[in-house]
Amino acid sequence: MGGWLRLVAARVGFSAFVALAAAFFALPMLWLVFAPFDPTPTLAARPAGPTLANFRDVFQNPLVLTSLRNSVLLALYAMVLVVAAATLAAYALSRVHLPGRDLLLYVLLLFSSVVSGTAAMVPLFLLVFELGLINTYLGVTLVLTGGLLPAAIFILKDFTDTTPTSYEESARVFGASPFQILRDIVVPLVRPGMAVIAVWSIVNVWGNFLIPFILLRDPDLAPASVVTYSFYTEGGQADLRLLSAFSLLYSVPVVVMYLFVQRRYGFRFYGGIKR
Amino acid sequence: MPTTSPAPAEAPGGDAQPPRGEPGAAAVLGRPAAGAFVAPALLLIAAFLVFPALWTLYLGLTDYRLTGAAAVNPSFVGLDNYTQALSDPQFRNSLVVTALFVFGSAVIGQTFLGFALAWTMRDWRSPLRSVVEVLVIVAWILPGSVVAFLWIAFLDGQSGTLNALLGGVDTEWLLETPLLAVIVFNTWRGTAFSMLLYGAALSAVPPSHLETARLAGASAFQQLRDVVLPTIRGHILTSLLLISLWTFNDFTPYLLTRGGPNFRTDVLPVFIFRNAISSGQLGYGAAISTVVLGVNLVIALFYLRLLRERT
Predict the structure, then answer these.
(1) CA A263 to CA B140: how far, in whole Å?
(2) B158 touches chain A (CB under 8 A)
(3) CATH number of the B89-310 domain
(4) pTM, 2 dp
């Protein structure tokens, strides 16, 4: 009888804990589910409407559209640069034992975890200032790329290490250049790894607030992360219709991309940097 | 955002075992070509990661300012910035706030909640499990500026969801208990990493060990203490070090409270931002950044040592 009671108690305790935890995580998100479709949203999370009028307003607001476009541009620039530089480097590091390679990788990993955007905001700001790149996407892209690259190289090197070298050797015998070998043989083999890096870079840049906040002073250049923030801190009362619909539009792409990678490649453990 | 957090699962180096395919590798790619392939990445990392870190050390010893005479011609002031920091009550306040923030949200909040979720749901075969997991993960991957506003709305005194659930109280949580609010917020935001890490670690605990313990009459708590925790000790340390490092460098509290009210949520990243970028005291900000870099370095060295021991 005691064992049976204990089983019931354990079951009840389990259900209560899981329900509480689920509520804790779900409740703050409810607003993002209801408010965008609410004709007169408040700060309360309550179902109303639904209407798509808020989205119509969003699409008629030039600042909003520009900021989403800016986010897309920044994410694409950084993604292209990270994937290209990381693929070249990962391939070379996995095929040739350059002197001190292991130490180099070790130090890079160390730097990438130690030098966060917050710890290095002063020199990053000054560096970009001195280069005359304040208010340019090039400045933001270079800073973000520098921070993302070490981890990207590590992840990609995992992929290049496991691809066979026999095709490359035959191609070499037939006189293909290193770049041709990379483009025609290696890239098709490590494409899944490049996809992971690409999505990971995009998700990172898409959500990054601090770097564009510091390096871009012109509101027309601000990406969605900064514009979202300015929506609720500047100009007195926040326009909740605009803010709610915009937040949803801005959030959906990263959630979709994350779920895509998760489903396709599973969850893999990489601990390390966060900027 | 924390999705964001890669670095290798395996130890990066030291004990050089030749990777697969290495003997024939020289034939595939010559050293000059390899050097050219590595160069763009190394240049970018050197310019935008390594150089800024080293430059911080130097800037912290100057009186560099954003505007005025010291902007044109900064002078070397030695350790003045550091002595200024030691006698700056706001800096000491920021140290305490940061310690409480990291300890409360990373060490206590995320680690305990993440482990509790992974442990209680380990054998749960139900579609509801994925629902809970997706909720936790979505909190982790939503953009920082969006979740910050979600919590401003959630904690709002007049019409926030929390107060509605509590039966119509009108506590302004972000004004009355700002640090606690930010700690709970960051626990909500970052628990996914611990949950996923511990989930993976727990699935690697041999079921036969647990079975043996159960047959010997061990309670769930005893199984946890004597079988599970020793097995996943490495994972616990990994998780503690990484999330402490991330939380220590997290700028997101700024999006909720901007360090206020009255500096009660003034964590070091916000302190640096306020002093260096807003007030233009770049030298002073760089000195505080050096302190942050030093702490980061200590945590990262521990972490890397751990990785090397595990492999």
Answers:
(1) 17
(2) yes
(3) 1.10.3720.10
(4) 0.84
